[in-house]
């Protein structure tokens, strides 16, 4: 590796951080505390054959803290090979080169990486920068270590700048998808290089920092490695925004006792939990520089509680909700700040309860509640998951399908977003499209989870915030979503362009689910769908289909007539209506309104119209509110003794041969007569039928509507509520 650095965190910053850690306990994995003394020990002479070299004693200590039974002999052998092969090489900072792989390995050891990852980390630069070959690594350390070293070596050859080779980056991500430990090593490698970036020219520092901000920090976020992500953010912040960084640094250094308010709240919380019999560890978690900067921009002047958050660690999942109940009972909660990431984990494996309570002085203290296991995963992400391929070789021998078609391994622990990325990158028509789509995807900070209820296969889909039903369709069904004709969101019909919210339930209506005709009659996506998509997979799939079917992409000519099928309507009602009028007005005509066509026993109200007649509306008709807003006085109306009536129904359906005949047969079987009908031309394989029907007994209306809904292809039947037949309903 050639990228070098000095940590932009000043000694004053380190003093503040160390003081906070000593006073409150180390709730966050603090990778900055790793001393240089352990790394410089690498220059010492070789250790006896059976003794662990002093240079990796700190690595061994950190590793044993997470894996007490780990075999350290392989680490000793890896260090001996790395030290001998890098001997005589120096970094631009003047340090022996071996200090770099040692620092990277120490970072991963602190995060809890397993032995194989640490072995590969010690050797990650040997194949690229020394005479050591990949075959030699494989002979001495096995296929697993060789695989990781080879993956990291390929990643090291990538230029992340403006002239980056997108195809090379695509290959790197494919390798990462096969084993996320490759990217874990790369992120730790970049962190150490960012720490020592000060030896480079300012313009090169800025270039590396920008790429770290645009690509590697989002990847660290998506892999859940918060300890790496937060320090990388601070280092990038110091380089790209030195003035804001200095302001934030001075703000923290100038308020050394700012955390006392949180200390007081922490003591109160701990006392409440002790009294409730809940075993919990309550810690103050100082915010890192970028977090303090964001809070200052959001809230303006900072108070003591704004410089950190409370972290409550418990043993079991159920205890998390017990803590939440006690806090909301004994303190004043800020309900808008509550989030449950335990019931619905974030896309990067993160689980925790977030809430906020009012401190005695009125300040708001944010609280994180999680188990010790959740905390480990929140800090270390995929690194905490260990070797994802343990036991996989035996499984592959029994089930050859366990290995991917191209012979590559498939990481069973890789996050869902990475699986989606690997899926859509195969469909990207060219490297530039892939590169631009990737950067746009990584720029999405928030994700939502929607529940998919399509038939017998419920499940969840993770989508970027702002995603629509179109995105959900392609995430759920792939290219089969070309035949998506509609969706129900939270049980109600919604346009495909509807933006989904976190926790929404979506049911996607596909043409093949309802059409009885051949599949080649199904229309494809509309060009307008591109206005509603946020995910690269959906955009690439839609663009590809439109490119392959140019004849369907052309919009209809402006003003082109849309033929309709019409039958003239009889406005007279079969129902008997009476209005309570006096004198000569009693002879006025009383008739049902055409906008809502009320039938017995609907609740009704009437209004005088021009000519002296009275129009009767359903009580919930939109026209009733409009009449009252303009000051029209209602007229008391009632039904007569006649049970017959006339109603207008709107049937929403998917187009198919014979649908009109089947609907009219269902209407006739129910005993209703068609007075008027309007059938709109198909739009995206959807057809709207509007029928005015005469009912011999209005009480049979619910049964009639059920019979119409049972016709194959019909997905909704409802009463018309406004406008003339064919117009949009409210």
Please write out the topology.
Elements (H helix, E strand, L loop, with lengths): L10 H14 L11 H5 L16 H10 L6 H14 L12 H13 L3 H8 L3 H4 L4 H8 L1 H14 L9 H13 L2 H15 L6 H21 L3 H15 L1 H12 L6 H16 L5 E6 L2 H11 L8 E7 L2 H14 L8 E2 L12 E6 L5 E8 H9 L11 H7 L17 H10 L5 H12 L4 E8 L2 E8 L4 H9 L6 E6 L2 E3 L10 E6 H4 L21 H13 L1 H4 L11 E2 L10 E3 L10 E3 L11 E5 L5 E5 L3 H8 L4 E2 L1 E3 L5 E10 L4 H11 L3 E7 L6 E10 L5 H9 L4 E6 L11
Parallel strand pairs: 2-5, 6-10, 13-15
Antiparallel strand pairs: 1-2, 3-4, 4-5, 6-7, 8-9, 8-10, 11-19, 12-17, 14-15, 14-16, 18-20, 18-21, 19-20
Helix pairs in contact: 3-5, 4-6, 5-6, 5-11, 6-9, 8-9, 9-11, 10-20, 10-21, 11-12, 11-13, 12-13, 13-14, 14-16, 20-24
Give the CA-based shape: elongated
| Portion in beta strands | 15-25%
Number of helices: 28
Outline the low-pLDDT stretches: 1-26, 32-48, 391-408, 513-522, 555-572, 722-730
| Strand line-up across the major sheet | 1-2-5-4-3
Structural class: alpha+beta
Radius of gyration (CA) equals 34 Å
Regarding quaternary structure, how should these chains be classified?
single chain
Distance between the termini: 64 Å
Helix content: 40-55%
The pLDDT mean sits at 75
Question: Could you characterize the architecture of this molecule?
Answer:
With 730 residues, this protein is of the alpha+beta class. The strands form 5 sheets. The protein has a 5-stranded mixed β-sheet with strand order 1-2-5-4-3. The protein has a 5-stranded mixed β-sheet with strand order 7-6-10-8-9. Strands 11-19-20-18-21 form a 5-stranded antiparallel β-sheet, with helices on one face.
